[in-house]
Design a protein that fits this description.
Blueprint (H helix, E strand, L loop, with lengths): L1 H13 L5 E5 L2 H13 L9 E5 L2 H12 L6 E6 L8 H4 L3 E11 L2 H14 L3 E8 L4 E10 L2 H18 L4 H17 L6 E13 L3 E7 L8
Parallel strand pairs: 1-2, 3-4
Antiparallel strand pairs: 4-8, 5-6, 5-8, 6-7
């Protein structure tokens, strides 16, 4: 009877439709969380929560390898840990298009780090909202990377000067120089950007810390 029960339990687990995977770097904390879930309302949600111990990126890599497919398998992701920005690139291939990735951190600068990394690496995420969860009534935050106008004007002036100089150059040599300039432009990795972090007026929420919410978009190549 025990073997039959185990077989039935395994069959049920293999066919679950709603699964919450939770990871903790500490096995002690993971076991404590499992006891809490098992004790909540007679453990009604216990069978739908899988507890894991380890690193988020390592776990995702292991899951992708075990599943032997590049198809995304996560509907939504919530990261409540230090250095959440270190995992965003690894989460992307496992998160379904239109899925939500939420990051909770105690500092607004940590959310800004995520915004900057997504911009710099061109990760397929669209920022939807940043809110501060505090004890009182708090406003929504505006967090985004912008390129200062001085940098844009300087780049445009430099391009105009190069174009004017090219008018007096032999067409063949001019094409070669333009090709060389294009290669240098494409190879340029550092650009001057500034980060805006300020409370928004209007919408207010109640709630400790900062929550950034992004939506997974399709990659530029069209691949998930």
């Amino acid at each position: 009877m025990e073997d039959l029960h185990c077989t039935a339990s395994e069959a049920w687990r293999d066919n679950r439709r709603a699964i919450v995977h939770t990871l903790d770097i500490s096995s002690k904390h993971s076991k404590h969380a499992e006891k809490i879930v098992e004790g909540f309302r007679g453990g009604m949600y216990g069978g739908n929560v899988d507890f894991h111990v380890g690193d988020v990126s390592d776990w995702i890599a292991g899951q992708i390898s075990a599943r032997k497919t590049e198809e995304p398998f996560l509907s939504h992701v919530f990261l409540d840990l230090p250095n959440a920005d270190h995992h965003l690139a690894n989460v992307a291939p496992a998160l379904r298009v239109n899925g939500i990735v939420a990051v909770f951190n105690p500092s607004i600068t940590q959310i800004a780090d995520c915004v900057e990394l997504i911009r710099a690496q061109r990760l397929p995420y669209l920022l939807e909202q940043v809110i501060e969860l505090g004890a009182g009534t708090i406003r929504e935050w505006d967090v985004r990377a912008v390129r200062p106008r001085a940098s844009l004007n300087g780049a445009e002036a430099q391009d105009s000067a190069k174009t004017a100089m090219g008018d007096a150059i032999d067409p063949v040599e001019g094409q070669a120089q333009r090709d060389d300039e294009l290669a240098k432009t494409l190879a340029r990795t550092e650009e001057k950007w500034a980060m805006i972090c300020r409370p928004k007026a209007g919408q207010q929420v109640v709630g400790g810390g900062f929550l950034g919410v992004w939506r997974r978009m399709e990659s530029a190549s069209g691949q998930v």
